[in-house]
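Possible regression after last week's pipeline update?

I re-ran a chain I had predicted before the update to compare outputs. Posting the input and the new output here so someone can diff against the archived version. Not blocking, just want to make sure nothing changed silently.
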Amino acid sequence: MISIIFLWGVILFCSIPLGLFILNNLKVSFLSRSFDKFIISFWIGISIIALIQLFLSGWFVLTFWFPLAFSLLSLSLIQNRQINSELKIWWKNFFLKKSIFWGGVFLLFSSAFYMVSSPIVWDDTGGYHIGNIEWLSQYGITYGIGLIHNRLALLSSWNTVIATFNHGVFEHRVFSITNGLLLFLLLLQIVVLLKRLSSNHRKKSDAYLLIFIGLVLMISLYKKMFHSASSDIASYFVTIFVSWLIILILEARKQNKREVLGIELPFLLSTLAIGFKFAILPVVVASFVLYFFLSKNKIKPLLFSFLSGLIVLGMIASSGYKASGCFWFPAPICVETPWGLGEQEATRLSKVIHDVAVDAYGLVPE
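New output (post-update):
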């Protein structure tokens, strides 16, 4: 249990400063509350790290060198005065207020205990997620990995974070580590929201976030989805947080006559999260529409969206090409290669996945 908490700390240390760096450069003005910045910094940071690791896994094996490199990056980012100031505020709030400290410690150990007290039971994790993680941690992405089993060509940046820790004393013990960390952060978020709603500083956005996080969290706990390596959990909750950011922007525009800065944040976060799962594409489209219509200068959102989309999709495509000959497998956009699965196989698997998602009988994929 202590080892899980240690690895959670490493992930947070790598993610938060990077996320704060992005928020500061976007000059986001509608995230005025400290914990809001903390949670969005985590999402931005881990999305970027996971995407970079997915891209580099085409050339390198995912080992401890990756979290070490991102830890050094975080140490350099902490030297920034603004980032350092934000981290000191969070540190003081956590350790100087006894109720916050003991509440956080209780949730931390409760989450860790919950994760170690039950085995992984989610079908897809045993079916191909574990195989994918094992391959990434031992060989990286190799040409034609999809020929061994087409499911190994279903790449997710979320799993690269797990793969970097799947070594040494942690080997075979970290498959649900990212979802466990997510559980802890969501429980923290719920406590913060309950405290806000019981005060005079409550907002409609707080009630919205509490309702949707609570509902999806209860369903996920009931189905034991946190005991898995599935990126479904990350996709569900990042969608909720993107929609919450949109509500925050609209609230800020209603309350302030000044221009709201950082309105590209929902689009950026959803675009980065494409690496988790392509199912989030409708959220990307919706956040782009909002970004475009709220921007005074229509050229800026078009350029920003084009460049960020090109970078993210290009990074994913480079790995997909090597794994299956298809850029975004199972999307049937493929090229003829000796190791390729081909458009026909991509179309077939895409249909199977779609049928599983909508089939009332819960058909399990072959």
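Follow-up from reviewer: compared with the archived run. Residues 156 and 276 are 5 Å apart (CA to CA). Marking as no regression found.
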